[in-house]
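Audit log entry. Action: structure prediction of a protein-small molecule complex. Ligand: pyridoxal-5'-phosphate. The ligand was supplied as SMILES and no pocket hint was given, so placement is left entirely to the predictor. Protonation state taken as written. Sequence taken verbatim from the request; no trimming, no tag removal. Recorded inputs:
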Amino acid sequence: MDNWPIMTLSGGPVELTERTLRDQSRPVLYHYDPAFIELYERTCQLLQQVFQTRYDVVMMQGEAILGLEAAAACLISPGDKVLNLVSGVFGKWYQLYIEKYGGETIELAVPYNEAIDPEDVRRALAQNPSIKFLSVVHSETPSATVNPVQHIGPIAKEFGVLTIVDTVSGLGGELLSPEAWGIDLAVAGPQKCLGGSPGLSLMSISPDAWRVMEQKRPAPVRGSFMSILDWKDTWLERRVFPYTPSVSLVYALESVLTQVLEEGLEHFAARHAAVARACRAGVKALGLELWAAREEIAGVAVTGVKIPAGIEDKQLRNHMRDRYGVMISGGYGELAGQLFRLGHMGKAAHPTYLAAQLAILERSLADLGRPVEFGAGVGAAMAALEGWGVAE
Ligand SMILES: *Cc1c(COP(=O)(O)O)cnc(C)c1O
């Protein structure tokens, strides 16, 4: 197929900047070349800065699902009780990993257009003093919502509970800090808000999490692709690798993290928030309904929009892609067919991408027979961006 899209504005992976593309395509170095060791070391330091942490960081060499499963595999001992917070597809999915590694799930769920209430977490932890872990998705990308992890994590800490946080699409878009938020093990992905290439699991690991991994019953996970401890025993302690890292993906990550920090973490997050807010204004002005039950819980990575009556999800997305070259995501898993998602991550968190995306949405809705006031969505979005780039 050679009709590639003009713009990829999906729920991830997302488009790379030119600089990332260039950096990613540098010659592949031997992983024990001093230049690569130096680059790898620098990448870890940059990652600590972006995570705003002094905890150890580990880059597992596989898409973020590897890091998420590895967290369960390495931390959970048979019989351990895990409070799993569910506000969407990825939250529910985590139960499979909890139980695969012998954990017992206690679920706290809300509808997939809602967010977890920290007070419900407090109640659940108070009722079940034997809970050992809490797992939560920070930015639930398929639902286009965020959970208040900054309030949930500290509650878990009050109860001495270890937290596992999927912030795959949160890092970069939100200013999180594992220490301040009470996150023992965070997993992020380069291919969402950070705007990088897919294929790595970016993890921040607290001393408590290391201790629990070392005490896992019947034995700590070691000598496995799934082992986080292997990275402690090799890279963190001896500056050797457990196996060959994905050299080109590390180049891309080093590039991406450098770009984020050059822009400034706060500016990077604020840019995502501003474009997401403008996107919501555009969607509402078009007479469409946001998927999130309340705007306060809408995420900055993607904007979820209910499929309007009389239009089919696939029909709309295929039309936008095939006729106009704009690739967006639909609902995922249980949410398939119920919403579509407009993407604004990485370089696409910018007025130009938003304007094009909303304009093509308007054109496509009209093509499919829905009455549209052309320019209504784009206009409202641009009006909401007043002040963009001023005072910089
Ligand atoms: C993208 C993403 C993942 C990784 O899942 P893939 O299906 O491999 O893309 C995990 N959790 C969240 C919240 C994500 O957005």
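Audit: result stored. Residues 145 and 298 are 4 Å apart (CA to CA). The first helix runs from residue 18 to 24.
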